[in-house]
Amino acid sequence: MTLSPARLVRRLRALLSRSRFDRDLDEEMQLHVDQLIARFRAGGLDETEARLRALREFGAIEQLREQARDARGVRPIEDFGRDLKIGLRALRHRPAFTAVLVITLGVGMGGSTAIFGVVNGILLKPLPYREADRLAVVWQHDRKTGDDRQEVAPANFLDWRERSRAFECLTATEPFGLDWRSPEGPIYLPTALVYEGFFDVFETSPLLGRGFRPDEYIQGRSDVVVLGYSLWRTRFGGTDDIIGRVLTLDGRPHTVVGVMPEGFSIPSDDVVWAPKVLQGWEKQSRTSNFYSVYGRLRPDVTIEQAAADLAAIAEQLSREYVKTNASVGVALVPLVEQIVGTVRKALWLLFGGVVLVLAVVTANVASMQLARAAARGREFAVRAALGAGVGRVARQLLAENVLLGVCGTALGFGLAWVGIAALRSMAPVDLPRTAELRADGGMLLFATILGFVTVVLTGIGPTLIAARARLQTALGQGGRGLTSARFMARTQAALVVFQFAASLVLLVGAGLLIRSFVLILTEDRGFRTEGVAIVTVQSWSYYTTPAARAQFVQDVEGRLSSLPGITAVGMTSSVPLMETISAEQAPLTIVGEPALVAGQNAPLVQFAVATTGFFQAFGIPLRQGRWFDSHDHADTQPVAVVNETFVRRYLSTGSPIGRRIALANLRGGPQTGPMNREIVGVVADVRRLALHEAPRPTVYIPHAQLPVGANAFVVWGAGRPADLLGQLKQAIGEANPIIPIHNQTTMAELVGDSLRHRRFLLAILGGFAVMALDLAAAGLFGLMSFVTAQRTREFGIRMALGAERRHVVSLVLTRGLMLATVGIALGLVGCLELTQFLASMLYRVTPIDPMTFVIAAAVLASTAILASLIPAWRASGTDPIAALREE
Amino acid sequence: MNKTDRLQGHLELLILHVLACDSMHGWAIAQRLQVVSRSVLQVGQGSIYPALRRLEDQGWIAAEWGVSEAGKRARFYALTSSGRQQLQRERALWREFVAAVGRVLELA
User: Fold this and answer.
1) A732-781 pLDDT, tens digit each
2) Cβ contacts of B43 on chain A, cutoff 8 Å
3) CB-count burial class (<10 Å; 0-12, 13-18, 19+) for A861
């Protein structure tokens, strides 16, 4: 029988207007009967007789009414509605059981849905650009070092742009900064200078105003800016009248011509875009690489074809410019990969973790349902005896499961709603696309599917039990149901084993991350974390001569050192763990070391410019020689201090003090070109790049001899961080009232930020592990309680025959432990494979770290003992007489 | 199979047929059918009501409350266009069936 839409509508209407249907039918039939009565009366019968005849003539009203109702075809739905009502009553009858079930389901589903929301929002959803899969980032690939994420040199970009046929358009941005003289004081605006076609590549129109016109990429006309959405909201109040406003940027009036929409974040939505005016020297420059290159592929070109095209061009360039391009290749990365590539693994890992938790939740709910079904064996048997088919009872159970599933899903989605907001706020700063995260239709769909699957999975067991109950009645076994109990105990045992195995995997995973975390925290980072505050500025454009920059730094240091509460004051060009002002690298030559002559093979070492106060503020001890001092200035012998790793790597023989080195390509000094520097001191190592990265060879150069304009002023003091920062800013402002602050932070904050990624992963996986552990314990407790209840009589007999209490306890304990052991063993086997996924996130711990495995297993085993102890103790308290009499 | 059963099975076809010329209320339909053959409604006149509901569910007839010729409230049934088509189909099928059975009986 087909169900046409019109018919469906009729049935729906019939379903909704049930009472009207009944009323109509009753009235109609009543009218008919009345007419029959009237006719028989007219035929000469008296009232009673006429009524009897009429009813006989008409037929059995009740039966007809039922038939008419069936005719509407909504009977099964109505029945199911009744089942739901009965189910609701059954669930309300045991509120605690229902609550535990719904909460367990809800928490499991909420966690999964929230994590799914994160995975979906960050990894799966397309980027907010039209046909985003055609967008790509192009990097230089240094074939010598293997670094394939190198910024691009201007002349290389120009050649790629001209020769490549794979792209609709290639464009580039250059990182820049504009100092805004705002009414509230100087403010630094991170800026991206963009090539022509930049906004077209992303096919994004401005939210307000316009992009740049072709004639604005010319010197003298380029003083126009477009604002990022977030910058516009935070700094400019998010008002429409911003368009046409004139801002004083870098001392010149600039007109705001546009605002980009929310989500446009190349390179971020907290920047200003300005037209890039190509400088004459850039057309030839193939050695200084600082462009980020983006392109939109032609519709008929695949990413592989485009990569091949660019590779061929790079090959040509290698031949044409042997001196500079011999080892320069090209790496093409899809934009989405560039943005989310680094976090993909961690997020899928979280998703894997939550799937395991959900599996444990499902197993747990299934076993609770099983226990419940077993307890209802008598009910099922009675129903079966009264003639209810297996289908009928299964439908009733299905109705109950659907109710639980709906409540669980609703709770889960609600929790996910809250959860994703929480995840958004606790997500590490470098997790991309977090601003876009919100509860959406995708999550709702996911929760619904999950709910459906869970309902089916957890409903199977009870239905089987019910079916068996029927069978037993048929076989005349009565309500006791031994077969059913054995079946159920076996299924539940399997579920418990599974829960323990999954919990072990989660525990080991979390354990490995914790071990890594602790190892990183306790690693000697080489610098002081507490009481150190940092404020950075860029003084290049305010002090154009080296002498003026040196003077500025001395001035600020002098103002700070006289303040109370400040113990040490310094300046450096490179703060450990701070990305925006991190260590630069320079090619190293060591005088007198034949292996390290200037030229092709010069190793890159990190270098930082510093004043002596920097080492004191950061607590970096001197190992040999002396510090810089006031005698080291522009007119004296250039000097340097190196770290211990430097000495170990390059100067392992003889004393390093007095050796001479040269660093090439240093910018900011009074003269260009390498000069010989004398090593005057050796300091302890510092972890600059990240806490988990071993120190690298580093050279420190006194600021007086290389007065760079990247200035991070640092103080160490006993005051509150906010006070220290305030003093720093005040001193800088007194020295120069128009220089804007780039950054302000404390070392404690930098350390915290650098660990946020790990902490995030750890917190979530740890939470999962604890949850799974609790569920496994609850599962085992439930099973042992059930089994001991089933065996009450046996225990009674044993004790009547002289068994002692502890015998019974150990009997139950052994069984519980046996199950847990099987689960743990299976989990350990699973771990051998699964923890490999964690390998890249571990620090000085192998994925099969024996200690973590042992601890996790021990935790689970003791949990198992606890979970079986209570049922065991209770069983041992059985009164033999009572137990036997109960039968 | 006795005569009653056989006719009972075709109750719905008969109702459609009766409604072909005019819309009618339940009472009138029952009387008309009884005129055709008393045995159709042997089990009771009420049996037209479930049949009417089935036809309604199929969309072949539509019902509306109105006032009968006797001035009483009554539910009137009328054929819908799809009901008309269905009646034609059923008629054709019936004729075919009768013809086929007839041929078989002639031959035998």
Assistant:
1) 999 999 999 999 999 999 999 888 888 888 988 999 999 999 989 988 88
2) 59
3) middle
Report the C-alpha gap between A256 and A231 in whole angstroms.
Answer: 13
A29, B49: Cβ pair inside 8 Å? yes
CB A729 within 8 A of CB A560: no
CA distance A164 to A334: 17
pLDDT tops 70 at residue A465: yes
Do B57 and A57 count as a contact with CB atoms less than 8 A apart?
A: no
| Residue A743 CB-half CA count within 13 A | 24
- Output helix, strand, coil percentages for chain A, rounded to the nearest 5: 55, 15, 25
Confidence bin at A1 (pLDDT 50/70/90): very low
Which residues share a beta bridge with A831?
Answer: none
- Find the CB nearest A32 among B26, B59, B73: B26
What is the number of helices (H) and of strands (E) in chain A? 25, 21
Name the fold adopted by B3-107: Arc Repressor Mutant, subunit A (1.10.10)
Asked if A252 contacts A223 with a C-beta cutoff of 8 angstroms, the reply is yes
**The two three-digit tokens of residue A422, written as one number:** 């929480």
Q: Do B50 and A4 touch (CB under 8 A)?
A: no
Q: What is the DSSP letter of A150?
A: B
The domain spans of chain A are 5-73, 145-326, 540-738
Of the listed ranges A571-575, A834-838, B43-47, the one predicted with least confidence: B43-47
Neighboring chain A residues of B58 at a CB cutoff of 8 Å: 7
Q: Please answer yes or no on whether B53 and A29 come within 8 Å at the CB atom.
A: no
Residue for token digits 């946020």? A756
Which chain A residue is nearest to residue B72, measuring alpha carbons?
Answer: A31
User: Rounded CA gap, B102 and B108, in Å?
Assistant: 10
Cβ separation of B44 and A73 shorter than 8 Å? Answer: no
Which burial class, exposed, middle or buried, applies to A600 when counting CB atoms under 10 A from its CB (0-12, 13-18, 19+)?
A: exposed
Nearest to B49 among A14, A35, A64 (CB): A64
| d(CA A299, nearest CA chain B) in Å | 52
For residues A646 and A582, give the distance between their C-alpha atoms in angstroms, rounded to a whole number: 18
> Distance between CA A557 and CA A554 in Å, rounded?
5
Question: A6 to chain B: which residues are within 8 Å by CB?
Answer: 59
Tell me the shortest Cα–Cα distance from B107 to chain A, in angstroms: 36
Pairing verdict, β A698-702 and A604-610: parallel
The two tokens of residue A319 are 């031949």
Q: Which residues of A touch B (CB under 8 A)?
A: 4, 6-7, 10-11, 14, 24-25, 27-29, 31-32, 35-36, 56-61, 64, 67-73
Alpha-carbon distance A515 to A511, whole Å? 6
